[in-house]
Write a structure and sequence with these properties.
Number of strands: 14
Helix content: 40-55%
Shape: elongated
Distance between the termini: 38 Å
Oligomer: single chain
Order of helices and strands: HHEEEEEHEEEEHEEHHHEEEH
Number of helices: 8
Strand content: 25-35%
Length: about 325
């Protein structure tokens, strides 16, 4: 055999071996990335389920308290005019359930009994229409001992104009309000409200129970997605329910206005969050979890947006996203080597 032909054959064999090796490595890498993609989907599904369960456990005490209070009022356990006894019941509920921020009863004539947590213990607002309008405020320590009692001559609050009252009255059943910022604490929360009817179907009042959702954001911030992953919860209108450092965001907003409002997730989220929401809007979410692979700027991301119900027709959406490199970084490094 001619020397030059021998060298050509050796070169061709080396090229074939090199191409075979590259093909095997590429196929192995593709298979590995597919496994990791499936792993990321499973991880995100598990975290979505966990976040939904924790969210429900957090808000359900408010829903149950409102429903139980309505039943007790309708069955005559409490006299609607016995504010002293109802106040003691509200205080006992707040003491025993940390998630509850406030409980109240509003009547069609504008009378209102409201018990809420405050910095030192509890505060009661009692609006009566006896020989005119009287608004009495009672501050209590954590042990329920009365600290201060006074009358507020300037208070013009009318519960009948509030969304929770109007929503329950219109629906004629228990409802959840959308998330909003509490007026006094400037913290995010929502209300479970339910109407009280007599046997003839006449409205006697509306019961409301507030639940502060700041701790939901703290839970969301600790979800172990990946090193650079992030989670959030929003309502169907895109308003932030839970978002990392949401309390800090609202604190900054409160410096600009007396009554801040909850921001939309798209406004406070990074490019990955904004892209995930836009991408998911092109897909009918229904009751299915949706797993996406998408680009946010120069970064390839995995994401999931999943709806779940908190009851009475109210749905929230849990979103998760993380860079693909958080799952494939070591594999890519090995493939490069």
């Amino acid at each position: 055999m001619l020397p030059w032909l021998r060298y050509i054959l050796i070169f061709v064999l080396l090229v074939i071996q090199l191409l075979t090796l590259i093909g095997v490595l590429a196929s192995s890498r593709a298979n590995t990335e597919g496994v990791l993609r499936d792993h990321a989907r499973v991880v995100m599904q598990h975290l979505v389920e966990s976040a939904a369960e924790n969210s429900l456990r957090f808000v359900q005490p408010a829903e149950r308290s409102a429903r139980l209070t309505v039943r007790m009022l309708q069955e005559g356990v409490f006299d609607l005019n016995d504010n002293s006894k109802i106040e003691r019941y509200f205080l006992a509920q707040l003491q025993s359930q940390d998630q509850l921020n406030g409980m109240y009863l509003a009547k069609p004539n504008g009378e209102f009994l409201y018990v809420k947590r405050d910095a030192n213990g509890f505060l009661t607002k009692d609006i009566r229409l006896i020989a005119g309008r009287v608004v009495r405020l009672t501050s209590r320590a954590a042990n329920l001992k009365v600290v201060v009692q006074k009358t507020d001559l300037m208070d013009q609050y009318d519960p009948r104009t509030r969304p929770w009252y109007l929503g329950a009255f219109k629906a004629k059943q228990q409802i959840w309000t959308g998330p909003y910022v509490f007026f006094t604490s400037k913290k995010p929360g929502l209300t479970s409200a339910a109407p009280v009817f007599n046997a003839n179907g006449t409205l006697l009042g509306v019961v409301g129970v507030d639940v502060e959702i700041t701790k939901l954001s703290e839970f969301i911030e600790r979800i172990p997605i990946s090193e650079h992953g992030q989670a959030f919860i929003m309502d169907e209108k895109g308003m932030a329910v839970s978002f990392p450092k949401l309390a800090q965001i609202l604190l900054e907003e409160s410096k600009k206005t007396d009554q801040p409002v909850l921001p939309k997730i798209e406004r406070i989220g990074n490019e990955a969050v904004q892209t995930l929401i836009k991408r998911s809007s092109l897909t009918a979410l229904g009751s299915n979890r949706n797993f996406f692979e998408f680009e946010a700027g120069k970064t390839l991301e995995y994401g999931m947006l999943s709806p779940f119900s908190i009851g009475y027709g109210t749905k929230w959406l849990i979103g998760l996203h993380a860079p693909v490199s958080d799952f494939t970084g070591e594999i890519n490094a090995r493939a490069s080597r």
